[in-house]
Amino acid sequence: MSCEASGKIWLNGEMVEWEEATVHVLSHVVHYGSSVFEGIRCYRNSKGSAIFRLREHVKRLFDSAKIYRMDIPYTQDQICDAIVETVRENGLEECYIRPVVFRGYGEMGVHPVNCPVDVAVAAWEWGAYLGAEALEVGVDAGVSTWRRMAPNTMPNMAKAGGNYLNSQLAKMEAVRHGYDEAIMLDYHGYISEGSGENIFLVSEGEIYTPPVSSSLLRGITRDSVIKIARTEGVAVHEEPITREMLYIADEAFFTGTAAEITPIRSVDGIEIGAGRRGPVTKLLQDEFFRIIRAETEDSFGWLTYI
Ligand code: PPE
């Protein structure tokens, strides 16, 4: 999906023109994948434009940086302000926001500590991640031959650029096999997550999702769905999930900032439930979008208005 030039990008404390937000080819990040980033959405509703769970995203950005011993030369409040400023400056009502922290130009070689830590925030209009109809009709997913990183190889809880090499392998394989998205297993063979989403299933009216120990990114949409489900009186279990539990589930769906809540209609060519969005998925989607669209009270305090 394209991200067309849309005005200005916040780079190391300054608003610069889109075309001028560039890095040197010998920046550490280009060679060694040394970046951490976030994906955040801003939605237009009847009260204005609101960023969804801004503080939690910025906190995770700082956690990712901490794991990789990157000192971000700003506070969390300053980054929150930079994000709000980027959306405002570009006059965007609904957009996808990408803050990225990376090891910049300084020294070559794996040991990264003498490279500067650069920070950028960009925003652009980004539609439905898995296709316009996906939110309603669902997507076809396939279990990948690529597994998520074992816990003692790369930290999955860090949203680091390098992790997405694994995601890319899985996604390219899935698309080559005719699927919309990949589902990866963890090191032990349990379900982990999609290339850019967390995964849930519904069985006998209760919700199941893999635990953080299954090598996944602790998604903020995942957390939102768990909170909404529990508020709606739906039981949620975070426990190891086997591949066949997906096959025999009544419903399954992906969650992510980009993917929002996307139903999964088949896995490995096996139809899940009725092969279309199920009632629990719809309930969660409806409530999720009601909060975002300010059609109900923001009782969790998830919206930051621009
Ligand atoms: N797992 C992975 C691997 C992942 O990349 C994401 C988000 C999630 C789970 C869900 O996390 P959250 O957004 O906090 O609910 N993926 C981001 C990047 C996607 C991309 O293609 O780039 C996103 O959805 O913004």
From TrEMBL:
It catalyses: L-leucine + 2-oxoglutarate = 4-methyl-2-oxopentanoate + L-glutamate; L-isoleucine + 2-oxoglutarate = (S)-3-methyl-2-oxopentanoate + L-glutamate; L-valine + 2-oxoglutarate = 3-methyl-2-oxobutanoate + L-glutamate. The keyword Transferase applies. Keywords: Amino-acid biosynthesis, Aminotransferase, Branched-chain amino acid biosynthesis, Pyridoxal phosphate, Transferase. Pathway: Amino-acid biosynthesis; L-valine biosynthesis; L-valine from pyruvate: step 4/4; Amino-acid biosynthesis; L-isoleucine biosynthesis; L-isoleucine from 2-oxobutanoate: step 4/4; Amino-acid biosynthesis; L-leucine biosynthesis; L-leucine from 3-methyl-2-oxobutanoate: step 4/4. InterPro entries: Aminotrans_IV, Aminotrans_IV_CS, Aminotransferase-like, B_amino_transI, BCAT-like_C, BCAT-like_N, BCAT_family, Class-IV_PLP-Dep_Aminotrnsfr. Transmembrane segments: none annotated. GO terms for cellular component: cytosol. Pfam families: Aminotran_4. It comes from the Archaea. Its cofactor is pyridoxal 5'-phosphate. Its EC number is 2.6.1.42. SUPFAM superfamilies: D-aminoacid aminotransferase-like PLP-dependent enzymes. GO terms for molecular function: branched-chain-amino-acid transaminase activity. Belongs to the class-IV pyridoxal-phosphate-dependent aminotransferase family. Acts on leucine, isoleucine and valine. This is Branched-chain-amino-acid aminotransferase. It comes from Methanothermobacter thermautotrophicus (Methanobacterium thermoformicicum).
